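Recall that a protein's primary structure is simply its ordered list of amino acids. Everything else, from secondary elements to tertiary packing, is in principle encoded there. The following example makes that idea concrete.
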Amino acid sequence: MTSTSVSVAVVYHSGFGHTARLAQYVEEGAADVPGTTTHLISVDGMEDSHWAALDAADAIVFGAPTYMGSASPAFHTFAYESGKRWVEQAWEGKIAAGFTNSSSKSGDKVHTLHYFTLLAAQHGMHWVGLGLMPGWNYSHKTADDLNRLGVWLGAAAQSNGDEGADAMSKSDLATGSHLGRRVADHAHLLARGRRAA
């Protein structure tokens, strides 16, 4: 049991519901860690209360679908609007992580995760990767393994373009939950270290 309390915010855009479902699993994974409060925030219709939750959070997890090799335009707008925080370095020292979804197995999802890492670096944040070995890369492994797409930077999911969010891979969703727990764990470690300093 942890002696600290931390807040994890999951801020995301979703075009067709797939990334929103993945965001829910990331948030639930973080909430599973004792002493963690969570906020699930869509970039659509950002209000002052949403920005305040991000400012107060110990960790922020960025999420967006990968469109044409990068995060969706709506997420890019959110990143642009975070410029005031960048000038003030208001998010400096927070934990950061990311997740993305596309219909292709690759779809250049890693580029979206790279974009998130750069955004986090510009804000002075500490990036936390997935921390999983790749799954489904030997004959005895299956598509049900965690990290079936073999990504290290964050959680990556693949959803068929002609199917809804309810048909998403259980492995991808479980990988998202793993990321949420890992982020919360790192936020607690950082908070305990700061209290001990």
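Helices lie at 18-31, 48-56, 73-81, 83-88, 109-122, 170-196. Residues 87 and 123 are 9 Å apart (CA to CA).
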